[in-house]
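Ticket 4471: requesting a sanity check on a complex prediction with flavin-adenine dinucleotide. Repro inputs:
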Amino acid sequence: MQRRFPEPGSAVVVGAGMVGLATAWHLRRAGLDVTVVESDRVAAGSSWGNAGWLTPPITTPLPEPAILRTGLRAMLSVDSPLYVPLRPDVDLIRFLLGFLRHSTSRAWRRAMRAYVPLNSQALEAFDELADGGVDEPTRPGDPFLACFAGADEHRLLMDEFAQIRAEGQPVAAELIGGDEVRALAPAVSDRVVSAIRLEGTRFLDPPRYLASLARAVRAAGVTIREGVTATEVDGGTPTRPAAVRVREGEQEERLAADVVVLATGAWLGHLARPFGVRMVVQAGRGYSFTVPVDPMPTMPLYFPIQRVACTPLGDRYRVAGMMEFRRPDEPLDPRRIQAIVRAARPLLAGADLDDRQDEWVGSRPCTPDGLPLIGPTRSPRVVAAGGHGMWGITLGPLTGRLVAELVTTGRTPDVLRPLDPLRR
Ligand SMILES: Cc1cc2nc3c(=O)[nH]c(=O)nc-3n(C[C@H](O)[C@H](O)[C@H](O)COP(=O)(O)OP(=O)(O)OC[C@H]3O[C@@H](n4cnc5c(N)ncnc54)[C@H](O)[C@@H]3O)c2cc1C
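Returned structure tokens:
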């Protein structure tokens, strides 16, 4: 799409998670005056307690045929890695119907093809931020291990890798035995009989990385206003700028800007819907906590059958999991933490799972077709940047770069076409 308004000189970005901050950094670098408004504080949303994996080889759409085969009944159990409480919620029902409609091989392949060109640039986008002053490092997976306790359990993931490769995404993976796993990660229990060793990944410490990104964004001259909630967006016209109505305590204010970027994660729908974004963004809530592990694994570990994801975070190990389709602001449900503990205990012998800190729940911004929503809305001055589901950390920096490209050139980059926020 060609820009239908003069070259922009200013932007308001709503939301200070990975996507909003990376977008602010790139817009500022392109020369715009940028203000970020954040209703809570930097990284208050999903960008704080996630697993911090940067795993382009396995960055794939969430809806897939296996959900139809195995997931539906399991979804209703509190112990299941995927949980949907039964309740009359129109958006949730719309989301689930759309999600099921996209859980076919054909839809998965189409969405996967949209991910391939994004995945190939994802890690390099982190190097660009590092060169630009983000001093918290990303670390190589070295190696990333997906561990299995049953003899044939690896087959499902290997089959999935074959399907990913068939759509053009390289995946370098090899099967290793249990003893080899323990040589690399001695804290893994004897129950683990094999693992898939995956190359081409990195990981980061999310709280530290987001703090470092926020520092770099501020140092570049962006104002980040925390405790400021966007309540309404005025999309402007080709000759009149857009504006965001914000509330800070009792105060209300109108912030005018040539462009407004909505990077509000699982809360995207509220502000984006008036601009034609009809696709539901559903909170896919996940839980995490940290524990001491002896000896500390130096790499991320994944237990695919249990859907538990682990990452080194300084001197503790973050253990994360669960996909709970509930409202984003509901309180943490301790039963879900217990379910992760029960799943991890037999597999992570070296972990003291009772010495938990930082118990956390956060909301993955999930779309029914498993693709993010990135691009101009019905108002060309209002850009959506959200809906990354399981992969907003991996794809956040690249998203920022692509949004800045579309804002400054007025043209939607080709890789964003399948992510059109106005698609049905
Ligand atoms: C358990 C778990 C593990 C995960 N592991 C990984 C992983 O290993 N790798 C990976 O790539 N991804 C992972 N993810 C997904 C990833 O965390 C998300 O995709 C990503 O954080 C989304 O970033 P965001 O900036 O879009 O949203 P958020 O980080 O949620 O940020 C949105 C921000 O907008 C603010 N906001 C909302 N409404 C308003 C408003 N009206 N006004 C002002 N501010 C507002 C919120 O307070 C919030 O700070 C995981 C998620 C979970 C839950």
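Notes from triage: The first strand starts at residue 10 and ends at 14. Leaving this open until the requester confirms.
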